[in-house]
Amino acid sequence: MKPIAEKNDILVTAPWAIAVFASRESVDTVENVLRSIVIACNGIETHIDVLINGNGYLAQSLGQRLRSEPIDLGREHNVCVWSVKLGDKAETWNVYVHHLHPKANITFFIDGYVQPEASSLRELAIALKDSEHALAATGVPSLGRTAERHTKAMLREGGLQGGLFALSSLAMDEIVNQRFRLPIGLYRVDSLIGAAINFNFNPATNSWAPSRIRVQPSATYRYQTLRWWRIKDLITHLKRMRRQAQGALENQAVRNHLAHNRRSPGTLPRTARELVLSWWNSEHGPGWWQIIRHPSWLLALEHFKKIQDWSAAKQNPELVFNNSDLATTPLGLSELIHGVTQDATNC
Predict the structure, then answer these.
(1) Among 72, 87, 178, 286, which residue has the least CB neighbours within 10 Å?
(2) pTM of this prediction?
(3) How many Cα atoms within 13 Å fall on the side-chain side of residue 97?
(4) Is the pLDDT of residue 28 over 60?
(5) Is the pLDDT of residue 24 over 60?
């Protein structure tokens, strides 16, 4: 397939916004991701927010690294590093889209271990602009044993790849206007965002349309794959397997909320626990034959039965670095609610 970015670059309209989500990565990993993003922006005016959740040490260390060993961020790019107290990607996404997001024509969401190829952001931007109905465009991984099979499946069935995707300004406006927030503790973040987009954020009046997400196979990215001989990577894989079962329950609960009950994303429960348990205990919950087919669901259910402390979500994000030499003190509540978007635009 010929790269779509060879069509008409006039369609790639600035400004851009980019949110990078990190938590357990190393300083070197996030810094390398940031370098690749700056290259992929290719001189386009861009505001980049690096949001590090549940790892204040990483946030402070990255901020210190960027101050003491500056990398070329380019004059066109405003870069901020934020420390989010709660270690939860879903809530960090909520903080970004509802409080930190600057006005932008296109917003990219990138995981903290993902390095987009040099042309990938432009590929996604043009793919999004080139479609009359698409609200999102998604990239695909270029590495890993299942990368090729996964790409073919996405081209055939649709979907949203959480590691690298872009949303239009219309999609971002709908998210804000509907007060669409991801349930805290949600694992399958990209699945829920993708489902909301496929329903055009209103299941009551719109049918499911995968064409609202443009899969762009030439928008690729790379990342460090797991090494099975490393104990740390093996533990990561085992944790991922456990959370896959939790994600399966989340997907069923999301399907019940959006597709069966035809309720809007803006009415989702506050936590993933409430979302899953309300579906499980309803008349539309799993049948005994489903539980027999998926015994891991029972183990995953025990996770959702536990009440977790999400009180850290009340704490405001701390700005630990910006490349405009602004103050790096924590923001107060009134500043967060009323002024962070403006501050973020200027930082």
Answers:
(1) 72
(2) 0.87
(3) 28
(4) yes
(5) yes
- Which residue is listed with tokens 């670095």? 321
The tokens for 12 are 């790639």
Residue with tokens 């509907």: 178
Place of tokens 């533990």: 235
The end-to-end CA distance of the chain, in Å, is 39
Give whole-number Cα distances, 238 to 89, 188, 248, 251, 344, in Å. Answer: 19, 17, 16, 20, 37
- Which residue ranges form the domains of the chain, and what is each CATH number? 4-225+311-342 (3.90.550.10), 231-307 (no CATH)
Extended beta strands in the chain, E state: 16-22, 46-53, 77-84, 106-111, 115-116, 136-141, 164-168, 213-222, 318-322
**How many other C-beta atoms can be found within 10 angstroms of the C-beta atom of residue 231?**
8
Q: Which residues contact 239 (CB under 8 A, 6 or more apart)?
A: none
Q: Mind listing the pLDDT tens digit for each residue in 113-142?
A: 999 999 999 999 999 988 888 999 999 887
Rounded distance, CA 255 to CA 234, Å? 31
